[in-house]
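Tip: read the tokens left to right.
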């Protein structure tokens, strides 16, 4: 038996994964245990979990594979500062001491952490390093169902690479092309995220959700001044507008002057039509670059399968455009496409590339629906609820599914905590908040009373795989909620002239289809297809809801509130249930109703959320 632990840490979204004889057994992000969003620290608790799940001790591990090569990253840092000197001295002064004290000696740091976790000194000889984009590419290809595929990775920056193209065949992964820092599609998107007043490395998806409210009237300006895009999708960014290479912010005065408005202050400045138009323009340019790239690659290499990873691969709108463009027969996207997924990639690269083991692609893939996180027994759930003072009933699985479907059909918002936790940023029916998509008020209710987040943000539909084509303009699988497609025209409602004339955020309250809670203002939806093979209980719930309502679709959003990670434990779930506007909690075979909990407890949990 060969055991490999993959680790990603020290930049953002740290995680641990474990691969045993080439099979992914478990993976989890540290934030789910620490309750610190995007926790970048060494994933000690995640490491403890994956070892326990695999039933091995830390000394049973043959290799620890780390997702990054720190010496190459330090080389890029030094060369960048020297290139731009004397600009960037403030950033240099902050960064270099940390590198000289810690990050440059990453192998020693990791060894210390492993020994603190109980490993003997021999663990230091077991540490391997994978290049950042090699890790992303491995996470995309090796778990995919393809024997051969083009692999495209796009993110902010690894060591030097910001975009890479590889060819995967069998157990081989050959990198054939790279774009290097500072020319980065991920950093371009993050620069606009910063300019629009959202948090870099976490607010990019908000920009994507904001884009449909605007018009891309600045797209030509971006292509003329900021980005020089070639026919094959390669590009260069004019660094006179950006400060991320050496500064402490993403954009400089020239960037704001180009668009005629200062960087938005999220504390004092409301979102306006201008900001929506900037978001729409950025999204249009991003899609144009990606489509030029994928079209050129398809023509050059004539490989019909495409794998995607890296943070930009979470841009599900662009992913949907690639699919509909028709240059590839099939597309597979790593569900943990960001740096957390690099832990899986580093481990699999060690197994196949470093150790040379053969590979047999699995169907539908080797990620097991992304349900590779912690699971709790019924006994453990009841013990946790008892400790919380919860009032609950216990029923069998079939009765629970029917009861929850009935509550959903009556307009209730349900916390759904079942089976193993998902790996990656999406809730896929393991740690989800669910609701009826037919309600015209559900989007606003969930955003403001349950999730405590911006009202413009859309929700995603989970749909029975066997019915997806009846409701959305997509055929095939989208199990990881990483494809956007339009609601079928037959499901849309006719818009009045006055409704069609609305602009910006005024579009929000207009019901556009039979399932308005999951239909964005441009008729799009970020789709999750649910199969009985990968999540039988969630599939059963959707089937029961369909039997009662004739609708095989549910609103599916992550079981958390703004600023918190997705819930991990039964205690996390109960706290979120009590502190928000959720009506029902289904956890294991336990069913909880808000009105049955004591008023004092309800108030105390709500107060706790208000103090956070």
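Filled-in amino acids:
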């Amino acid at each position: 038996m060969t055991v490999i632990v993959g680790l990603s840490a020290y930049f953002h979204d740290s995680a641990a994964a474990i691969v045993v004889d080439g099979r992914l057994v478990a993976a989890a992000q540290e934030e789910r245990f620490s309750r610190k969003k995007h926790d970048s620290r060494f994933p000690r608790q995640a490491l403890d979990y994956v070892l326990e799940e695999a039933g091995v001790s830390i000394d049973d591990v043959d290799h620890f594979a780390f997702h990054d090569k720190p010496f190459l990253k330090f080389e890029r840092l030094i060369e960048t500062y020297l290139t731009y000197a004397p600009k960037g001295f403030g950033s240099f002064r902050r960064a270099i001491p940390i590198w000289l004290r810690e990050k440059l000696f990453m192998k020693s740091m990791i060894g210390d952490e492993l020994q603190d976790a109980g490993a003997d000194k021999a663990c230091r000889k077991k540490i391997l390093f994978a290049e950042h984009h090699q890790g992303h590419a491995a996470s995309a290809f090796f778990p995919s169902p393809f024997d051969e595929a083009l692999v495209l990775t796009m993110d902010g920056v690894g060591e030097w690479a910001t975009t890479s193209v590889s060819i995967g065949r069998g157990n081989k992964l050959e990198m054939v092309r790279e774009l290097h820092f500072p020319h980065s599609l991920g950093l371009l998107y993050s620069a606009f995220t910063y300019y629009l007043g959202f948090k870099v490395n976490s607010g990019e998806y908000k920009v994507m959700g904001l884009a449909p409210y605007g018009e891309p009237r600045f797209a030509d300006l971006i292509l003329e001044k900021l980005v020089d895009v070639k026919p094959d999708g390669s590009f260069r960014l004019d660094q006179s507008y950006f400060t991320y290479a050496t500064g402490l912010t993403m954009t400089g005065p020239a960037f704001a002057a180009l668009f005629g408005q200062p960087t938005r202050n999220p504390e004092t400045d409301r979102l306006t039509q201008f900001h929506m138009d900037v978001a729409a323009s950025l999204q249009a340019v991003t899609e144009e670059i990606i489509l030029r790239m994928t079209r050129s690659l398809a023509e050059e290499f004539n490989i019909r399968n495409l794998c995607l990873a890296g943070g930009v691969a979470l841009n599900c709108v662009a992913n949907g455009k690639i699919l509909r463009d028709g240059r590839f027969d099939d597309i597979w996207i790593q569900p943990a496409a960001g740096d957390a997924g690099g832990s899986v990639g580093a481990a699999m690269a060690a197994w196949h590339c470093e150790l040379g083991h053969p590979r047999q692609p699995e169907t539908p893939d080797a990620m097991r629906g992304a349900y590779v996180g912690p699971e709790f027994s019924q006994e453990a759930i009841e013990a946790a609820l008892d400790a919380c003072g919860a009032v609950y009933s216990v029923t069998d699985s079939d009765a629970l599914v029917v009861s929850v479907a009935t509550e959903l059909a009556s307009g209730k918002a349900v916390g759904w905590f079942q089976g193993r936790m998902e790996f990656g940023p999406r809730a896929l029916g393991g740690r989800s908040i669910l609701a009826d998509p037919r309600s015209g008020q559900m989007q606003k209710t969930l955003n403001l009373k349950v999730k405590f987040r911006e009202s413009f943000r859309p929700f995603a539909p989970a749909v029975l795989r066997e019915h997806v084509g009846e409701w959305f303009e997509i055929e095939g699988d989208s199990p990881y909620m990483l494809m956007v497609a339009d609601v079928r025209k037959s499901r849309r409602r006719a818009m009045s002239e006055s409704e069609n004339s609305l602009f910006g955020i005024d579009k929000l309250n207009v019901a556009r289809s039979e399932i308005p809670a999951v239909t964005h203002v441009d008729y799009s939806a970020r789709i999750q297809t649910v199969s009985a093979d990968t999540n039988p209980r969630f599939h059963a719930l959707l089937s029961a809801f369909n039997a009662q309502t004739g609708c095989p679709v549910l609103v599916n959003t992550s079981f958390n509130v703004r600023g918190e990670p997705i819930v991990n434990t039964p205690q996390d779930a109960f706290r979120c249930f009590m502190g928000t506007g959720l009506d029902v909690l289904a956890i294991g075979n336990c069913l909880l109703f808000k009105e049955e909990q004591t008023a004092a407890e309800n108030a105390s949990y709500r107060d706790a959320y208000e103090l956070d």
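The first helix runs from residue 31 to 34. The mean pLDDT is 93.
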